[in-house]
């Protein structure tokens, strides 16, 4: 029985073949692209379950590919794992803020690749279950499946990360979460994202939500919670 479909975007042939070989050995279907333009086209036509995306690509780089996929309603829900040889925090943070789900610095072990792929696909499965449940709290309505937020009946445009933070907090009103717990839940563990990044997301959310922004409370010395 065919398993999930993975799109590998890598312009170095030896690395591409290594990743393809190990994914196929694990039973995954594999699509391949060597340029950003080709990757976007394949993703829009084939709808893979996950994308392994190299940042350093000719012409259109991986960050631009990520931006395009996450802004297209057809592909925005496809998880993306970035592959980078740079190891530069700025590129990693930019990719994560654009909506990438994970990253792996080169060189990497094929076993690590498989482990990360499995982890992201498991998380995607949980998210798809959650997507069926609309969250309603007084004047605020969150539609996970449609990636839509209504505040007092008016649509609110949020970034990918802002939406994930709001959804995470609103799922369990009254529960207090540290900034690191929010980072771990939204992006996975061990990301080079600081506590200050969470504070910036919260400020943006409160501003965009208007009076509904008051539902997000600061718990001094701990973190944040969604009002019961």
Quick structural overview:
With 228 residues, the chain is an alpha/beta fold. It has 2 domains: 5-129, Response regulator (Rossmann fold), CATH 3.40.50; 132-226, Winged helix-like DNA-binding domain superfamily/Winged helix DNA-binding domain (Arc Repressor Mutant, subunit A, Orthogonal Bundle), CATH 1.10.10.10. It contains 8 helices and 12 strands.
Outline the secondary-structure elements.
Elements: E1 5-9, H1 13-25, E2 29-33, H2 36-46, E3 50-54, H3 62-71, E4 80-84, H4 89-98, E5 102-105, H5 110-130, E6 135-137, E7 140-143, E8 148-151, E9 154-156, H6 160-171, E10 176-178, H7 179-187, H8 195-209, E11 216-219, E12 223-226
Parallel strand pairs: 1-2, 1-3, 3-4, 4-5
Antiparallel strand pairs: 6-7, 7-8, 8-9, 10-12, 11-12
Q: Report the CATH C-level class of the largest domain.
A: Alpha Beta
Rg (CA only): 18 Å
Q: Let me know the average pLDDT.
A: 86
Structural class: alpha/beta
SSE series: EHEHEHEHEHEEEEHEHHEE
Count of structural domains: 2
Shape-level CATH architecture of the largest domain: 3-Layer(aba) Sandwich
